[in-house]
Design brief:
Belongs to the glycosyl hydrolase 99 family. Keywords: Golgi apparatus, Hydrolase, Membrane, Signal-anchor, Transmembrane, Transmembrane helix. It holds the Pfam family Glyco_hydro_99. Its EC number is 3.2.1.130. By secondary structure, the chain is of the alpha/beta class. It has a single domain, classed as Alpha-Beta Barrel (TIM Barrel), CATH 3.20.20.80. It is built from 13 helices and ten strands. Helix 6 crosses helix 7, helix 8 packs across helix 9 and helix 9 packs parallel to helix 10. The protein is globular. The N and C termini lie far apart (88 Å).
C-alpha cells in the first residue's frame, strides 16, 4: 500500500511539472517567435509603446539580418588604407532636403582684372541640368545631408580602399561664400562612416576672423563634441601619443608668430600638452612657407592643389626635396594627388590651369610621384570637389544644353578603381619602408 502511495505521489509531481513546463512554453511563445505565423504589426507597435524609451531596441532578428547584410557588403570591399585620405565636401544641397539648390547653382566668378572679366559671363548656374561643374555626378544634384547619399559615398570610398575622409569644416553657424552651415550634420556623417569602417578627420577652412584664439576654441569644440566617436580619426605619433589630425587650409593667411602662440610648447596659451593637443598640418603653397610652417610649430604639411605646376607645393618634381626638408625637421609630409583639374564652369577664364585626365594617366602619374617621395600619408584632391573637376566620385555622361565632360570610354568607377590599385601598392611600399 505504501509502495502504491509513493508511485501515486511521484506521478502527481511529474504531472504538475509537465503542466508547469507547458504553461511556461505557451506563455513564452509570442507571435513574433512562432514558427508558423507572422507577427501582428499592431501588437508589435503596442508592445513598443508600453516600453520606456531606453528599453526600445530594434527587433533582434531584424538587426541580425541587417548586420549580416552589412558584413556581406563589407566583405566585397578591399580593406581601408588609413594612410590614404580624401578631401570630402558636405556643402551641396537640393530642394528636397534643403529647400533650394546649394553650391550646384554656383555663380561664375569674375577675373580679378576688370578688363579680362568683361570678356566672360558672370551668371549663376540653374540646376538640375545646369550645374556649377564640368562633370555630372552619377547621383545627380544631390544633397550632402541625404542619408542615402552618405551611404553611397561611403560605399564608393570603400571601393577605392580609402580609409579616411578629411571633411571640409566651418565652425557652427559659419559657412563659405556660396553655402550654408554644415556642422549640424557631422554627427550623421560620423555614424555612416563608422558603419563602413571609415575614419573622419577635419579640414579646417579659413573661416572669417580665424586667429590663434578662436582656433583653440574651435579645436576644443570639435574634440569635445566628436572626439569620442569611434569614427573620429586619431594617429599614433612617434612619441606614442594618439592624437587627432587636423588639416588647416590656407594656413599662410595667419602669420607664423600667431600660429606659434597656439602651437609652440613655450607659449602660455599653447594648445600643446592639453586635452586638445593634436597633429596640425599646414598648407604648403610657396617655397618660403616651409620655414614659416616650421617657425609656426606645425607638425606637418600638405600640398592640396591637384594642378601639377600651379604652386611650389603642388609641383610634383619638388616633392622629393620637400620630403627631405620634412625629414630633417621631423615634419609629416602629405603630398596631394588628383585625377585632373578643370574649373571653367565657375571660373570660365581659368583654362590655363586645366589638367586633362587623359583617361586616368594624369592621376596615376600623380600617385606614382607621391609614392616615389615616400610620404607619411597621401591625400587625394578630391573625393567630390565638383566645382574644380578634381572629383574621383562617379560621374556619368549627361546630355543637356550644358556640355559636360565624362569618364568615357571608361566606366563611372574608373577613378575609384585606380585609387584602389594604388592603395594596395602604397600599403605594400609602406611595409617595405618600415623593414
Amino acid at each position: 500500500m505504501a509502495r502504491f502511495r509513493r508511485k501515486s505521489c511521484i506521478t502527481l509531481i511529474a504531472l504538475v511539472l509537465l503542466v508547469f513546463i507547458i504553461t511556461v512554453v505557451l506563455k513564452a511563445l509570442t507571435p513574433e517567435d512562432s514558427l508558423f505565423s507572422l507577427p501582428d504589426k499592431n501588437d508589435e507597435i503596442q508592445r513598443e509603446d508600453d516600453k520606456k524609451p531606453e528599453q526600445i531596441n530594434m527587433n533582434d532578428s531584424a538587426q541580425s539580418e541587417k548586420d549580416a547584410e552589412l558584413e556581406s557588403t563589407l566583405r566585397k570591399f578591399p580593406p581601408p588604407n588609413y594612410y590614404l585620405h580624401a578631401f570630402y565636401y558636405t556643402w551641396y544641397g537640393n530642394p528636397k532636403f534643403d529647400g533650394r539648390y546649394i553650391h550646384w547653382d554656383h555663380v561664375q566668378l569674375p577675373h580679378w582684372d576688370f578688363k579680362v572679366a568683361q570678356g566672360y559671363p558672370q551668371k549663376r548656374h540653374v540646376p538640375p541640368n545646369d550645374l556649377g561643374s564640368n562633370f555630372y555626378p552619377s547621383l545627380g544634384a544631390y544633397s550632402s545631408k541625404d542619408p542615402s547619399v552618405m551611404e553611397a559615398h561611403m560605399q564608393q570610398l570603400r571601393t577605392a580602399a580609402i580609409g579616411v575622409i578629411a571633411v571640409s569644416w566651418y565652425p557652427p553657424n559659419m559657412k563659405d561664400d556660396n553655402g550654408d552651415p554644415t556642422d549640424d550634420f557631422v554627427p550623421l556623417l560620423l555614424e555612416v562612416a563608422h558603419k563602413y569602417h571609415i575614419k573622419v578627420a577635419f579640414h579646417i577652412e579659413p573661416y572669417k576672423g580665424r586667429d590663434e584664439v578662436n582656433m583653440f576654441t574651435n579645436v576644443k569644440y570639435i574634440i569635445e563634441k566628436y572626439g569620442e566617436h569611434p569614427a573620429f580619426f586619431r594617429y599614433r605619433t612617434n612619441t606614442g601619443k594618439v592624437l587627432p589630425l587636423f588639416y588647416v587650409y590656407d594656413s599662410y593667411l595667419m602669420n607664423s608668430e600667431q600660429w606659434a602662440k597656439l602651437l609652440k610648447h613655450t607659449e602660455s596659451n599653447s594648445i600643446r600638452d592639453t586635452p586638445y593637443d593634436a597633429i596640425f598640418i599646414a598648407l604648403l603653397v610657396e617655397e618660403k612657407h616651409k620655414r614659416d610652417i616650421l617657425t609656426a610649430g606645425f607638425d606637418g604639411l600638405y600640398t592640396y592643389f591637384a594642378t601639377n605646376g600651379f604652386s611650389y607645393g603642388s609641383t610634383q618634381r619638388n616633392w622629393d626635396s620637400i620630403k627631405a626638408f620634412c625629414e630633417d625637421n621631423s615634419l609629416i609630409f602629405i603630398p596631394s594627388v588628383g585625377p585632373g583639374y578643370i574649373d571653367t564652369s565657375i571660373r570660365p577664364w581659368n583654362f590655363q590651369n586645366t589638367r586633362n585626365r587623359i583617361n586616368g594617366k594624369y592621376y596615376e602619374t600623380s600617385l606614382s610621384a607621391a609614392l616615389q617621395a615616400k610620404p607619411d600619408f597621401i591625400s587625394i584632391t578630391s573625393f567630390n570637389e565638383w566645382h574644380e573637376g578634381t572629383q574621383i566620385e562617379m560621374a556619368i555622361p549627361k546630355t543637356s544644353q550644358t556640355v559636360y565632360l565624362d569618364y568615357l570610354p571608361n566606366k563611372p568607377e574608373i577613378y575609384l578603381e585606380i585609387t584602389r590599385k594604388w592603395a594596395a601598392i602604397f600599403g605594400g611600399e609602406r611595409r617595405k619602408w618600415q623593414d
